[in-house]
């Protein structure tokens, strides 16, 4: 199908079932099928793979993945789209559709989704979990970030997200996009932008550019983080004002747990001068610094 045919098919089917794409659910459908294929190819699926798709939409990406993966678990919040996709996906016995919100809240996946994934992962020999999705942009960051902290470690994540978020994920120190998200992702994964996409490849058009991002979990990197929750929270709190001096950020983040002299002592041990800024610290340096802080303030929690 051409882009125009895909768009008119979509418009007609959605009109038949009385659906207007809702911006609150990030309903921007990818109508360039070459790009849908690029997402599938970037995921390098095979019969060991259990795919999690957040946002079934009309099921076009789901159907392509079902032909290559062992299992696809696909989650859709919108009842009309869930029903439409159920018709499209009838022929696939390796697709499990869930009509629910993929997230329980900002920091956690929906347990129903995790339980279903757990069942499918246990049933497939040598299984690997991959997230592959054209993500709803309003929840793209929590979906990617929370999957890294949940009980099923993903092998990789290939997703369409806002270009701005993709740039933050791959950003390097001293750049405007370097943030807690960059550190959290790069500390555990190898991240690359596969393709930048203009609004015109979606219907309806989003207001911003998009990108396909490929994030591959790196076990060696992950194993080098002794306490991921502590690291995540510490990085988030010192990056709240990333352009400020590091000392002020650490003093504010650790108040009641470290006094200023203790912070100065830890900064000295790391050879950080008084004018060191949070935004200049490389991921490995932040990890080493977190471990020093954790040794002195192990009970700290936000
Ligand atoms: C960008 S569209 C992608 C649809 C389809 N996969 C495609 O490629 O065209 C995002 C989809 O996610 C659904 N969605 C939005 N928020 C969701 C959530 N929290 N949990 C599950 N699905 C959600 C929307 O209803 C929409 O169908």
Automatic annotation (TrEMBL):
CDD domains: AdoMet_MTases (cd02440). It catalyses: adenosine(1518)/adenosine(1519) in 16S rRNA + 4 S-adenosyl-L-methionine = N(6)-dimethyladenosine(1518)/N(6)-dimethyladenosine(1519) in 16S rRNA + 4 S-adenosyl-L-homocysteine + 4 H(+). Residues 35-219 form the Ribosomal RNA adenine methylase transferase N-terminal domain. Its EC number is 2.1.1.182. Gene3D superfamilies: Ribosomal RNA adenine dimethylase-like, domain 2, Vaccinia Virus protein VP39. SUPFAM superfamilies: S-adenosyl-L-methionine-dependent methyltransferases. GO terms for cellular component: cytosol. GO terms for molecular function: 16S rRNA (adenine(1518)-N(6)/adenine(1519)-N(6))-dimethyltransferase activity; RNA binding. The keyword RNA-binding applies. It is found in: Cytoplasm. S-adenosyl-L-methionine binds at residues 28, 30, 55, 76, 101, 134. Keywords: Cytoplasm, Methyltransferase, RNA-binding, rRNA processing, S-adenosyl-L-methionine, Transferase. InterPro entries: KsgA/Erm, rRNA_Ade_diMease-like_C, rRNA_Ade_Mease_Trfase_CS, rRNA_Ade_methylase_Trfase_N, rRNA_adenine_dimethylase, SAM-dependent_MTases_sf. The keyword Transferase applies. It is an enzyme of class 2 (transferase). NCBIfam families: ksgA. Belongs to the class I-like SAM-binding methyltransferase superfamily. rRNA adenine N(6)-methyltransferase family. RsmA subfamily. Specifically dimethylates two adjacent adenosines (A1518 and A1519) in the loop of a conserved hairpin near the 3'-end of 16S rRNA in the 30S particle. May play a critical role in biogenesis of 30S subunits. This is Ribosomal RNA small subunit methyltransferase A. It comes from Aeoliella straminimaris. The gene is rsmA.
């Amino acid at each position: 199908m051409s882009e125009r045919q895909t768009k008119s098919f979509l418009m007609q089917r959605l009109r038949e079932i009385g659906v207007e794409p809702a911006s609150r659910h990030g309903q921007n459908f990818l109508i360039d099928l070459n790009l849908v294929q690029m997402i599938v190819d970037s995921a390098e699926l095979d019969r060991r793979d259990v795919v999690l798709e957040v946002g079934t939409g009309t099921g076009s990406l789901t159907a392509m993945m079902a032909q290559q993966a062992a299992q696809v678990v696909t989650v859709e919040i919108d009842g009309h789209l869930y029903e439409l996709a159920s018709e499209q996906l009838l022929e696939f016995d390796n697709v499990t559709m869930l009509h629910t919100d993929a997230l329980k809240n900002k920091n956690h996946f929906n347990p129903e989704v995790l339980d279903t994934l757990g069942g499918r992962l246990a049933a497939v020999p040598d299984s690997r979990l991959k997230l592959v999705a054209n993500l709803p942009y309003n929840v793209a960051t929590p979906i990617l970030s929370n999957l890294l902290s949940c009980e099923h470690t993903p092998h990789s994540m290939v997703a369409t997200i806002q270009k701005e978020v993709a740039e933050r994920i791959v950003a390097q120190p001293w750049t405007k996009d370097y943030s807690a998200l960059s550190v959290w992702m790069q500390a555990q994964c190898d991240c690359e932008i596969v393709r930048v996409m203009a609004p015109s490849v979606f219907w309806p058009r989003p207001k911003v550019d998009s990108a396909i991002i490929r994030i591959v979990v790196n076990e060696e990197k992950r194993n080098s983080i002794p306490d991921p929750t502590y690291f995540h929270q510490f990085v988030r709190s010192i990056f709240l004002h990333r352009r400020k001096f590091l000392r002020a950020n650490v003093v504010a983040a650790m108040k009641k747990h470290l006094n200023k002299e203790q912070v100065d002592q830890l900064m000295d041990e790391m050879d950080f001068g008084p004018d060191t800024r949070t935004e200049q610290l490389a991921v490995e340096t932040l990890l080493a610094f977190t471990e020093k802080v954790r040794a002195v303030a192990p009970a700290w929690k936000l």
